[in-house]
Amino acid sequence: ATTRHHEWEISYQLKSPDCVRKLAVTINGQSPGPTIRATQGDTIVVRVNNSLLTENAAIHWHGIRQIGTPWADGTEGVTQCPILPGDTFTYTFAVDRPGTYMYHAHYGMQRSAGLYGMIVVAAAPGGPDAEPFAYDGEHDVLLNDWWHDSTYEQAAGLASVPMRWVEEPQSLLINGRGRFNCSASAAAAAEEGTCNATLAECDAPVFDVVPGKTYRFRVGSLTSLCALNFEIEGHPMTVVEADGHYVKPFVVNNLNIYSGETYSVLIKADQDPNRNYWLASNVVSRKPGTPTGTAILSYAGGRSPPPTTPPAGPAWNDTMYRFRQSEATVAHPAHVEPPPPRANRTILLLNTQNKIDGRVRWALNNVSFKLPHTPYLVAMKRGLLGAFDQRPPPETYEYQSYNIYDPPPNPNATSSDGVYRLQFGSVVDVILQNANMLDANKSETHPWHLHGHDFWVLGYGIGRFDPKVHPATYNLKDPILKNTVAVHPYGWTALRFKADNPGVWAFHCHIEAHFFMGMGIVFEEGIERVAELPGEIMGCGKTKGGRH
Ligand SMILES: O=C1O[C@H]([C@@H](O)CO)C(O)=C1O
C-alpha cells in the first residue's frame, strides 16, 4: 500500500464551462478538480489550502467510509468546522475498497460552483475484490448540471419568501464541459459579451476507442439537481459496478443515474469505425428545460461531431422505466455480502415539502433539518450538550392515515438539529417514503446518500409502504450495497446498514437545494470509540479555542 500526497489550492476562477464566462470554485485552477487515482489499501493525503477570498470550504470524499477517521469525512457542521479563507486542512484517509467514487464540496451550496472531482480506486491485483470482468481500456465520465446564476443567488432565492426556485440548469456538463447556445434566445442575449462558442474550454470532450476493443466507462453524477440518463449512441452498456460494488451484469441501451451515484459500464467498440458517436446526457424525472449534454466517442482519433442527432433519452416522466433499472441492480453472484436477516430498529421517514415561517422547506416526519454551528463530532465527544437539540427526531409518521398522493394536510413543519443515536453494532432499517409536494399531483425523485457506510438496498415500491406487508418482499438474497439510492416519485425505498463505524454521519438528499432546504438527518454511533479528535476540525461555535 502506498501513501499518496496531494496539494490542493481552492480558488475562484473565471471559467466558461458552457462557453459562458462565470465565477467557478476550482481546485488548482480546474473544475472538475484532479482525479484521485489509487489502489485499494492506499492512504490518501490531501492538503487543502483555502485561497477563496471570502468563503469557507470543506471537502467530502463521497463513498469513502472513513473507517477510523470520521473527522476526515469533510461534512461541515457534522464532522468539522469549515476551513476558513487562508487556512489549510489536511484530509488523511484510507481507500479500503476498489471502485468509482467522487469528492465534492460539503459547505452550503458550494458544490454547485464546480468544486468536485472523481476518485478511482483500482482493485488490489489477485485480491478477493478483483474485478469479475475484463476490459482493454477505461474512461472516466463525470456528469453535472450548471447554472448561470451563482450559488449565492441560488441560496438566497431558496431562503426567500416567496421562494425563488433554482429552476432547470442552463447546461449539462460532461467532464466539466457543455455548450450553451450563444446565438439563440433572449437568455443568450443576456449573456452577450460573456458567451464565446469558439473557446477551446467548452469544446466537447472526446473519448477515444480502438475498434474491436472493450472499454470500461466509469460514470459518476454530481448534479446539483438533475436526474440524468446517460447514453453512448449505438453502444449497449453492460452495467458491472455501482457505488464501488460489483453488479450482476445487465445490459441497457442507456443508464439512469442520480446525483451521488457512480456506475461502471462496459461497451464494445464494434460499430462502423468510419464515423464518430455521441455520448449524451439527458434530464429525466423533471420536465427537461435543458439541452442534451454531449461528448464524442471517436474511433479514429477525429474530433468531428457525429452525423446524427444526439440521443434524446427515454421519456422524462417514465418512472417505471427508471424503477426497473433500480430493481435490476443486484449484487454480482460471486460478490454477494448477505445482509443481517433482521433489523434491531426501523426508522420510517416520510419525505415532504413543507413550510416554516412561510419559507419552503423539506422535512422528514415533519422535521426539517438545520445544521448546527458546532460540528456534532466535537460536540458529542466533548459532551457539549447545548450545541444541538438533545431530543431525538421522530422515528415514524402516521402511515396508517397519511395520504401520500395529497399535498401535506399540515404544511407547517418544525426545524431541528437533533440526531438519531444508534446503538453501536446494531442493524438499522430505514424506509424512505416519498409523497406529494406542496403543489398537487407532483412528487419528485430524491437520491439519498449515507455517509460512513454502504447500505443494502432491500427493496423498492410505488405507493405507501406498509410495515406489515412489504418487509416480507425484501431481497435478502443478493441485494446490492450502495451509498446513494433513489426514492422514486410516490415510492418507497428500504435500506439496511450496520451501525458499526464510530462517528457522526449525515444521511441526506443529494440534491444540493434540497439538503439546503432541510432534507437530511444525522446518525451517531459509537461516539465513545472515536479516537482523539484532531484539533484541525475545531475552531468554530462552542469549539473555539479547542485547537490547543
Ligand atoms: O423544492 C422544490 O421547489 C420546486 C417547486 O416545488 C416549487 O417551484 C421544486 O421542484 C422543488 O423540488
Automatic annotation (TrEMBL):
Instruction: Family membership, please give it.
Output: Belongs to the multicopper oxidase family.
Q: What class of enzyme is it?
A: oxidoreductase
Q: Which reaction does it catalyse?
A: 4 L-ascorbate + O2 = 4 monodehydro-L-ascorbate radical + 2 H2O
Q: Does the keyword Disulfide bond apply?
A: yes
Assembly and interaction partners? Dimer.
Entry superkingdom: Eukaryota
Name assigned to this protein: L-ascorbate oxidase
- Please name the CDD domains in this protein's record: CuRO_3_AAO
Q: What is its EC number?
A: 1.10.3.3
* Species of the source: Urochloa decumbens
Cofactor(s) needed, names only, are: Cu cation
